Amino acid sequence: MKYLEPIDYQTPEFGDLYDELPLWSAPFGLMLLEHVALRPAITILDVGAGTGFMTIELAQRCGPDALVIAVDPWAAAMQRLTRKLNHLGIQNVRTLVQSAAEIDLPDASVDLIVSNLGINNFDHPEATLQTCFRLAKPAASLFLTTNLVGHMSEFYDAYRSVLLELGLSSQLAALDAHISHRATVDSVTKRLDRAGFKVVNVVTSSFRERFVDGSALLRHNFIRLAFIPAWKSIAPQEAVEATFTALEHRLNALAATAGELSLTIPAACIQAVKPAAM
Ligand SMILES: C[S@@+](CC[C@H](N)C(=O)[O-])C[C@H]1O[C@@H](n2cnc3c(N)ncnc32)[C@H](O)[C@@H]1O
Predict the structure, then answer these.
(1) For residue 231, what are the domain limits?
(2) What number does the ligand 1 atom closest to the CA of 49 have?
(3) Residues 38, 30: contact at Cβ < 8 Å?
(4) Residue 170 has what DSSP assignment?
């Protein structure tokens, strides 16, 4: 029996691919895996699959008779997913390197749709949700996770104080708009509703991202990748450096008082279904 054979963890390929997912994705992914409806022999669509840890988990957890279709326009990430699939010998996955809004699969052909930190953060979530609705079989579920308004509120409070301190109160509207672009359970429910899905279950949770201080936060690679571009755009271009210098001081002062910089990340896992009778 093949599964009783030992796995050689000393190969370079094993070392390369052992890290399965971005750490930022992990708490959201664990929520989704805790609640997602697992069944054998189903067709699953992973929307915004990224490097594909959810695809790989579901392909294995649902067994070889299930098919997982991973879709993402990010070619480099999908290449890594393909390497992982080859390395692990997983054959029940199909990859689509394209926008999920344009998937060309038959209507009513998917039993389960998952999206970890995906659809809700896309540029045009409505188009993707319409496609998901078309592809979903009647009674199919869609599970998505997202961070919520309240995300990193400690950071944004500091940003607000700095804008006031620097006489940049004209930028407060931009800050507020940035803060409120995040999802609420209500806004996601309405969005899903508009696409025809009905929300049937919502699980919320909260975790913390901890740093020794603001200097560590602002130099963290994932923060630089995923958050700093939007944070920069809140400040006027000519005042970006002054704003970030003041912000770093402020966050460091907070950390000195509290012993660390702890940022709250509220999260939700939302299940919606396509009504059985249309
Ligand atoms: C925050 S990442 C999440 C990736 C993965 N689900 C995870 O949890 O690690 C969002 C992903 O959505 C993808 N994405 C953005 N727009 C998309 C679209 N229109 N269709 C499909 N995927 C898209 C991005 O390329 C990125 O891989």
Answers:
(1) 149-181+207-265
(2) 6
(3) no
(4) G
Interatomic CA distance for residues 25 and 262, integer angstroms: 18
Whether pLDDT at 277 is above 80 = no
Residue 227 has pLDDT above 90, yes or no: yes
pLDDT at 278: 58
Of 86, 23, 76, 11, residue with least CA distance to 50: 76
Record the tokens describing residue 17, joined without a space: 């691919």
CA of 73 to the centre of ligand 1 (A): 8
Residues 176 and 50 in one domain: no
Residue having the nearest C-alpha atom to atom 12 of ligand 1: 48
Residue nearest to atom 25 of ligand 1 (CA): 74
Q: How far, in Å, is the centroid of ligand 1 from the Cα of 24?
A: 13
Helix (H) and strand (E) counts for the chain? Answer: 12, 7
**DSSP of 29-67, one letter per residue?**
HHHHHHHS---TT-EEEEET-TT-HHHHHHHHHT-TTSE
- Residue 74 maps to which CATH number? 3.40.50.150
Ramachandran angles phi, psi of 250, nearest 5°: -65, -45
pTM: 0.96
Q: What is the CA 58 to chain-centroid distance, rounded?
A: 16
